[in-house]
Design the sequence.
């Protein structure tokens, strides 16, 4: 039978000090970026039920809330919901109180950024949750500073607040919210993202470009614009059970053929045009908040920022490689013009060498300094130095066993999922000596899972060395490496995280040597 509710405690006034709060003194953050259930909710609940809450969330005083009520500033909403659920279910008083550290109120933008950063470490937000939250962060920042904020300024502000993100990633999220979400909310909320979402955005961009090109060249009049045609097609596939990129493309071409009467642009004509505008993508982890910096799209609003209306054709002519690398050229004399050119270059320029692409680690490694992961037009030092720094740097805020275990699990899962074997691994964060992930079962595991598990110190068979060669290097006869360049960089990042994790675990296990006084 449920116990009577204990009395409320006095509201603490000291900041940066741990205090004990009752559930009635706390509430979920109104700007919580997570709109869907945490995929690890049941696991977290089981752990809290068995061990109690062993983490200390940060809380703050949001002036919008009633006096005496505190909210979470950097994650903690899921843990609060679980504690309230367990209190309602059991009446056990240990679930009615939470020890939290009081943090000064820094504004809604800072709070939202803190929640995004924490969720990136401890749980998988859907792409659309991240994109909508970044859009909301832009609105809050504009309210705070009293002026319009460009996407590049937003990326810089997010980075300074502990949420490393590349400008191109913010552009991509803006495109998804503007062009996909209004028509496909159910599909996006189901977790749709990664490579298929990238293909959809590229298909949309290519189709719209073809539409506008033929409309201008052939003086074609239509009863509708491109946007409602594309949107209506998206609405037909707004169901996770119905989605298929090939079927969507087939349906879209049929709709475009009917809506755009043009000689030579029948079904086969559209198909040939779309294939001609298509550029193969490197594989990327599913549900990432960002995409690799290949073929970035700058939203139309960014092209016209500050009264400038820059055409893609003009910008491509201005972005010759020899100009972008010469600091003495006229391109570098006007900072405003240079920023406009840089934004467009990151959007329109296609790298000719996939191996030169530096992946954006925002979705998997929130501890990487994004200033070290720049697009090619901004890099003034050798690109390999940026790769080395971004792979090796560990932010001090995430340099602890708990964060590193979560990063280890996230990175290993992304690599395995890219090869269709994500289910072969599971989280392993149950003790301070755990590596963050482990293999579910060795009997039917894939080679990729076995290789990743071997990085934790597990030994499976004598073929581990040969397996690593096949996965990373390939053979001189016929076998090409199974891991592409981007996955190999992610693997190196995983190795770095595991090395640092093991270092901290060894330090924790080392005996304390007494100091002789006198």
Sequence:
């Amino acid at each position: 039978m449920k116990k009577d509710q204990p009395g409320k405690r006095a509201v603490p006034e000291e900041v940066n000090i741990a205090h004990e709060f009752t559930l009635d003194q706390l509430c979920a953050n109104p700007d919580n970026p997570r709109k869907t259930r945490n995929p690890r909710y049941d696991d977290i609940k089981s752990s809290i039920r068995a061990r109690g809450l062993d983490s200390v969330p940060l809380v703050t005083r949001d002036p919008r809330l009633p006096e005496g009520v505190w909210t979470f500033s950097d994650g903690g909403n899921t843990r609060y919901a679980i504690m309230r659920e367990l209190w309602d279910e059991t009446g056990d008083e240990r679930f009615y109180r939470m020890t939290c550290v009081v943090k000064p109120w820094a504004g809604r933008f800072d709070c939202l950024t803190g929640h995004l950063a924490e969720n990136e470490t401890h749980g998988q937000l859907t792409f659309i949750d991240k994109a909508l939250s970044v859009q909301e962060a832009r609105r809050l920042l504009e309210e705070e500073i009293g002026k319009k904020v460009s996407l590049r300024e937003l990326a810089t502000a997010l980075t300074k607040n502990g949420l490393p993100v590349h400008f191109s990633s913010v552009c991509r999220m803006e495109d998804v919210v503007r062009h996909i979400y209004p028509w496909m909310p159910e599909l996006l909320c189901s977790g749709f993202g990664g490579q298929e979402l990238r293909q959809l955005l590229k298909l949309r961009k290519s189709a719209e470009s073809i539409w506008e090109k033929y409309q201008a060249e052939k003086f074609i009049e239509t009863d509708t614009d491109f946007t409602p045609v594309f949107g209506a097609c998206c609405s037909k596939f707004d169901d996770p059970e119905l989605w298929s990129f090939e079927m969507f493309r087939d349906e879209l071409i049929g709709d475009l053929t009917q809506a755009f009467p043009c000689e030579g642009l029948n079904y086969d004509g559209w198909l040939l045009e779309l294939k001609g505008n298509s550029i193969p993508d490197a594989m990327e982890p599913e549900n990432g908040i960002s995409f690799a910096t290949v073929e970035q799209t700058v939203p139309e609003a960014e092209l016209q920022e500050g009264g400038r209306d820059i055409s893609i054709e003009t910008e491509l002519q201005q972005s010759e490689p020899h100009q972008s690398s010469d600091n003495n050229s006229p391109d570098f004399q006007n900072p405003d013009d240079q920023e406009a050119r840089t934004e467009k270059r990151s959007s329109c320029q296609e790298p000719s060498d996939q191996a030169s692409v530096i992946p954006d680690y925002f979705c998997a490694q929130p501890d990487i300094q994004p200033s070290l992961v720049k697009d090619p037009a901004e890099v003034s030092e050798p690109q390999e130095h940026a790769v080395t720094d971004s792979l090796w740097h560990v932010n001090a805020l995430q340099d602890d066993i708990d964060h590193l275990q979560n990063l280890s699990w996230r990175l290993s899962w992304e690599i395995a999922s890219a090869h269709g074997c994500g289910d072969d691994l599971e989280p392993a964060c149950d003790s301070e000596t755990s590596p963050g992930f482990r293999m579910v079962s060795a009997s039917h595991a894939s080679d990729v899972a076995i290789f990743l598990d071997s990085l934790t110190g597990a030994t499976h068979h004598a073929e581990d060395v040969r397996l690593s060669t096949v996965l990373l290097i390939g053979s001189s006869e016929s076998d090409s490496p199974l891991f592409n360049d981007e996955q190999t960089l992610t693997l190196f990042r995983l190795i770095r995280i595991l090395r640092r994790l093991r270092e901290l675990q060894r330090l924790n296990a080392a005996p304390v040597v007494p100091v002789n006084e006198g």
The radius of gyration is 25 Å. DSSP finds 20 helices and seven strands in the chain.
